[in-house]
Design brief:
The complex is a heterodimer of chains A (about 180) and B (about 375).
Chain A lengths: L12 H5 L1 H16 L22 E3 L14 H5 L5 E7 L11 E9 L8 H5 L5 E3 L14 E2 L1 H8 L8 H10 L5
Antiparallel strand pairs in A: 1-4, 2-3, 3-5
Chain B lengths: L1 H6 L2 H34 L11 H4 L4 H8 L1 H13 L10 H21 L3 E4 L5 E4 L7 H9 L2 H11 L3 H32 L10 H8 L4 H4 L2 H4 L1 H14 L11 H4 L9 H26 L11 H8 L9 H27 L7 H30 L2
Antiparallel strand pairs in B: 1-2
The chains are: A alpha+beta (about 180), B mainly alpha (about 375).
Chain lengths: ~180, ~375
């Protein structure tokens, strides 16, 4: 590799007085003084959340209002800090979505343990758990920081669903060609 | 009202005038601490403190929001906090001197204000009469003498604190203040050489300096800042060092000295040091404006009397002493506040010098420069005023 020898020039008189540098600095700081402010005034102004952001994990419903989680417990197993606790439950046979067979009886995410890694979202075969845009999570008690199922659905809301897999399955079963 | 005032005993008149000046200096010092935070924030692209608001002022539309955004009520919040928090007295300090130091810091800070003229009015014969609490003939000397007493409070605070960082800080303070006092004094001598023209009564007062800068003509109307840029520069640099402002605030460099002489202080005593420091800045800026930037003259080559005569065409009351007085005080305060803004501006521009650099600059650069400057102007003035 070629070695470049840079000639180090001696400082000029103006540079040795240090004054031109100070004036240059004053100019720079004054430009900043009148410039648009760079900070957000937080509670009033919120930052724009980029797509793919990993916020607080939530449970979502499909557009028909069906809870998507089928309590397979994959997220519970994959969760590195063991923040997720699922109690699987049956869906009663006379419910409209009884063909799904299972739903969580209880679903708890301990936000004091959660590390926002997003593995639960990645592993979920039903696209039922999403790390959405909420980035600020606080509470006064430890109990408050453990999100139960109702709170998780409240945070998650409804997300669009391209597949509506269980509806297709039900329709296919009705036509007698269930796989 | 004027008759009533002038019929009061002289002592009462003096007291009222003194209180009036203190009532201006103290809020300015308080607002300066706020301005410091605001300017710091703006230069760092932040909006700065803008939350505190008194409810019934928040109800005023626009004005209330504006004052809130300006952070004006943070001054009161800060001051109130400093008044009401616990005034701790560490066990290891020398209690008497520990308490005496902040009080002693205030005395020179407020005493120097008395000799600084802050405005002027036109007498019946059209002469410009300066306004000052004590228009002494030895004004500059009095400011130098009393302002340098301020260092005693720092030494006392550092020594009475009985711990190493305050002690180191106060040693630095005394060395630095002595070093820069020399160049500061030498830098203003050319000004006083010039204004003490032969055939006139000798004076070290500020009024003559301003009067000299309000003469007609190209040379007379020019401010000393233009006629003696090197003097003005040396005085300004020394002023930064004397008031412990960045880049010369090695005295309270929190990185290596924690908080220097006020490490052990808190609450109101610390606040007194703070106010004293800002008062020094205000008086220093005022002296700089008086000597080098034309005092209460609005613009170079436009003295106050010209402005008043011009305003007289539009306003019938323009020649009233009260109007001229308020106008000149406003001009003077504006210039002084700009200087204080300049202090803050420099603070966020130039990083702090190392202590050895401060000493080297003071003794090896500024002192020879100020002596050379003095010799040059002494010879030049001898030729001009032959």
């Amino acid at each position: 590799m070629a070695v470049l020898t840079l000639e180090r020039k001696p400082l000029t008189f103006a540079e040795r007085t240090y004054l031109p540098q100070i004036f240059g600095g004053l100019k720079t700081t004054f430009a900043h003084l009148v410039r648009k402010k760079q900070t957000l005034e937080y509670p009033e102004h919120r930052p724009a959340i980029p797509p793919g952001y990993r916020g607080v994990p939530t449970l979502v419903m499909d557009p028909n209002g069906r809870e998507k989680c089928v309590s397979c417990q994959l997220c519970e197993f994959v969760c590195p800090p063991k923040a997720i606790r699922i109690t699987p439950g049956e869906i009663s046979p006379d419910a409209p979505n009884s063909h799904v067979e299972k739903a969580p009886q209880a679903f708890e995410i301990d936000m004091l343990r959660c590390i926002y890694c997003g593995l639960c979202q990645e592993v979920c075969p039903e696209e039922a758990i999403f790390l959405q845009n909420q980035f600020s999570m606080s509470g006064y008690t430890r109990a408050e920081m453990v999100h139960d199922k109702a709170r998780l659905y409240e945070l998650g809301g409804t997300l669009p669903d391209k597949h509506l897999k269980w509806d297709h399955k039900k329709a296919a079963a009705a036509h007698g060609n269930a796989h | 009202m004027f008759d009533f005032f002038f019929n009061l005993p002289v002592i009462v008149q003096g007291l009222i005038k003194g209180l009036a000046v203190i009532c201006v200096i103290f809020p300015i010092a308080g607002v300066c601490s706020m301005a410091e935070r605001k300017v710091a924030a703006w230069i760092q692209d932040r909006p700065g403190p803008n939350r505190a608001i008194v409810p019934w002022i928040a109800w005023i539309p626009f004005v209330g929001t504006f004052l809130q955004r300006l952070g004006l009520f943070h001054v009161m919040a800060d001051g109130g906090k400093m008044l009401f928090k616990e005034d701790s007295l560490p066990g290891h300090v020398n209690k008497f001197y520990f308490i005496a130091a902040p009080i002693l810091a205030m005395i020179p800070a407020l005493t120097t204000v008395t000799v600084v003229p802050f405005g002027a009015y036109l007498s019946a014969t059209g002469e410009v009469m300066p306004l000052a609490l004590a228009p002494l003939d030895v004004g500059m000397l009095a400011v130098f003498a009393v302002a340098s007493l301020g260092v005693y409070s720092l030494i006392l605070a550092g020594w009475a604190s009985n711990s190493k960082y305050p002690f180191l800080g106060s040693v630095r303070a005394s060395a630095q203040l002595i070093s820069y006092e020399l160049s500061m004094t030498l830098s203003v001598i050319p000004v006083f050489l010039w204004i003490n023209a032969p055939g006139r009564e000798a004076t070290l007062g500020f009024a003559r300096a301003v009067e000299f800068q309000s003469q007609p003509g190209l040379w007379g109307g020019a401010w000393f800042g233009f006629l003696m840029p090197v003097s003005a520069f040396i005085f300004l640099v020394a002023l930064f060092a004397e008031t412990n402002r960045t880049p010369f605030d090695t005295i309270e460099s929190e990185a290596d000295l924690v908080g220097s002489f006020h490490t052990e202080y808190g609450a109101f005593k610390w606040g007194l040091f703070f106010v004293a420091e800002y008062s020094h800045m205000i008086v220093g800026s005022a002296v700089f404006v008086l000597l080098f930037f034309g005092g209460w003259n609005p613009l170079p080559w436009v003295p106050l009397a010209t402005l008043v005569n011009w305003l007289g065409h539009f306003l019938p009351c323009a020649h009233a002493p009260l109007f001229v007085g308020v106008l000149s005080i406003a001009i003077f305060l504006l210039k002084t506040l700009f200087m204080i803004f300049f202090f803050m501006w420099v603070r966020w521009t130039v990083p702090r010098f190392r202590y050895d650099q401060v000493m080297k600059l003071g003794w090896q650069k500024l002192l020879p420069l100020s002596i050379a400057n003095l010799l040059f102007y002494a010879v030049a003035i001898a030729f001009i005023q032959k």
